[in-house]
């Protein structure tokens, strides 16, 4: 009877130790993925701001004027004028 109890106790200790170490490893992976997701969200927000900046009419007009002024405004829209249209 003592042998069965001792064997059961050893198996119990081993399983608790294994499950605890596995839980720690999973928590580490979860934390690493959460950090990766937060970094990706920050990069996404930065890119959204850059895209918003690049699509502003004033920015496009400035770039156009610096490079020869091939754009004109048609109410709120920007119209491209090629060199043949001039």
From TrEMBL:
Keywords: Coiled coil. Residues 30-57 form a coiled coil. The keyword Coiled coil applies. This is Cell division protein FtsL. It comes from Dielma fastidiosa.
């Amino acid at each position: 009877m003592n042998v069965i109890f001792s064997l059961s106790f050893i198996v119990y200790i081993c399983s608790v130790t294994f499950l605890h170490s596995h839980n720690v490893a999973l928590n580490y992976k979860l934390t690493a993925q959460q950090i990766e997701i937060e970094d990706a969200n920050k990069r996404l927000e930065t890119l959204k701001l850059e895209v918003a900046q690049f699509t502003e009419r004033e920015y496009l007009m400035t770039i156009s004027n610096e490079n020869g002024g091939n754009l004109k405004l048609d109410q709120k829209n920007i119209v491209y004028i090629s060199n043949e249209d001039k």
